[in-house]
Design goal:
The chain is α+β, with helices and mostly antiparallel strands. It is about 35% helix and about 20% strand. It contains 9 helices and 20 strands. The strands form 7 sheets. A 4-stranded antiparallel sheet has the order 2-8-5-6. A hairpin with a 2-residue loop joins strand 10 (about 190) and strand 11. Helix 2 crosses helix 3 (about 140-180). The longest helix has about 40 residues, at about 140-180. It is elongated and about 70 Å long. The chain starts with 14 loop residues before the first strand and ends in a 9-residue tail after the last helix.
Length: about 375
């Protein structure tokens, strides 16, 4: 596969080379893990090149790859990862890539590979047949190092921001467990069907504390969904924008989609406000008190709702099962407000860092476009 790069497009001092002239590959046969019975106590990570990256940890002390750093490359998807620690591999479809020459910065070529838009429609191995024949623009070695250093610095900031997000989310989970079972300032507790809760609290259902508006959900026509300014909510939040709305108030939406509830890739409960449309994949609850709504939203997002799902092939959380979920509720409005505000403050910190990560990711994308093409040159 050749690129469309012409001689006129090559920056001064750069050259056009095939990846096969720069990177060599090794099959993973000697490094494939024998047993997939992973353990958190083991030390050696088992890797894949896709999003999962670390599949688990093994205590196998043989066949561990140590000639670092390398790039691992999935021969079917062309996904890749830069690795600078000892590892084992799960799949035989992985190629282990290593620089062939001393004037090659592997981090630069990893970034170069991540910038390639390579078509992978068919299920076949790509590296030998096509990918290694890609032609790429290559700067002098010092410039490779400088570009890799700049991109690496942004990667570090992204990773640190992600660590803050994960630590704050972990903090919130711990706070929720504490606040929804012990409350604030209580010393006396009672046993209930959901375990110990403060003696002054009740165990109620959504039917007791809110009004269901599922009967106001209306199927939307294709013409209205084709374009518009109003959010269109489904089981995972906003899924589209439409040309009309059916709600103009703050309501709690709760996913009906069992697959979403099992995977937990999205919040189970979320708030909708302003003008918007809701499809049939989300239950709709109206609360008289905004702090009670936030309290319930956080509580539902903490729960494992698997026991309340119906259906096997297409599991769902229907309205009857939704109303079976027991909810611990403080009697004092002031305590509900305090719990909601504590968790809301943590949410704001998470949101701030998620926005920062988005900005850093966009910054890196722009830097990659400019630096890897030679449009912007580094001062070396």
């Amino acid at each position: 596969m050749k690129t469309n790069i012409t001689q006129q497009n090559i920056p001064k001092g750069w050259s056009l080379k095939k990846l096969s002239d720069i990177l060599g590959y090794e099959r993973p046969d000697n490094y494939i893990v024998k047993s997939t019975s992973y353990s958190d106590k083991a030390k050696t990570p088992v890797l894949t090149a896709n999003k999962s990256f670390v599949l688990g940890y093994t205590d196998e002390d043989f066949g561990v790859y140590k000639n670092l750093p390398v790039i691992i490359f999935d021969d079917f998807t062309t996904d890749s990862k830069f690795v600078d620690f000892p590892f084992k591999i799960k799949s035989s479809a992985i190629k282990i890539l290593k620089e062939k020459r001393s004037d090659v910065d592997l981090r630069f070529f990893y970034a170069k590979m991540k910038s390639v838009n390579f078509p992978t429609g068919s299920h076949k191995r790509f590296y030998i047949s096509q990918y290694q024949n890609l032609e790429v623009l290559v700067p002098p070695f010092p410039e490779q190092q400088k570009i890799a250093e700049i991109l690496g610095a942004v990667d570090e900031d992204i990773a640190k921001t992600q660590e803050v997000i994960e630590a704050t989310e972990k903090l919130k989970r711990g706070l929720m467990q504490q606040l929804f079972t012990r409350g604030i300032g209580h010393t006396k507790f009672k046993e209930t069907k959901i375990g110990q809760i403060p003696e002054e609290w009740d165990v109620l259902s959504l039917e007791d504390i809110s009004k269901n508006l599922d009967n106001k959900r209306i199927p939307i026509t294709k013409s209205k969904r084709s374009t518009g300014q109003y959010p269109y909510y489904g089981a995972t939040g906003i899924v589209d924008y439409v040309s009309d709305y059916i709600f103009e108030e703050t309501l709690l939406l709760i996913s009906e989609d069992g697959a979403n509830l099992k995977d937990r890739n999205y919040p189970i409960a979320f708030t909708a406000t302003g003008k918007y449309w809701v499809n049939n994949h989300a239950h709709i609850q109206r609360f008289e008190d905004k702090f009670l709504q936030q309290y319930v939203q956080d509580y539902l997002n903490m729960l494992n709702l698997g026991p309340y799902l119906t259906g096997m092939t297409q599991p769902k959380l229907n309205k009857d099962r939704l109303f079976m979920i027991p909810i611990p509720k403080p009697k004092k409005t002031s305590e509900i407000k305090e719990i909601a505000e504590i968790l809301s403050a943590v949410d704001k910190k998470i949101l701030v860092n998620k926005k920062l990560k988005e900005k850093l990711t966009l910054l890196k994308k722009g830097l990659m476009q400019d630096l890897l093409s030679g449009v912007v040159r580094t001062n070396i």
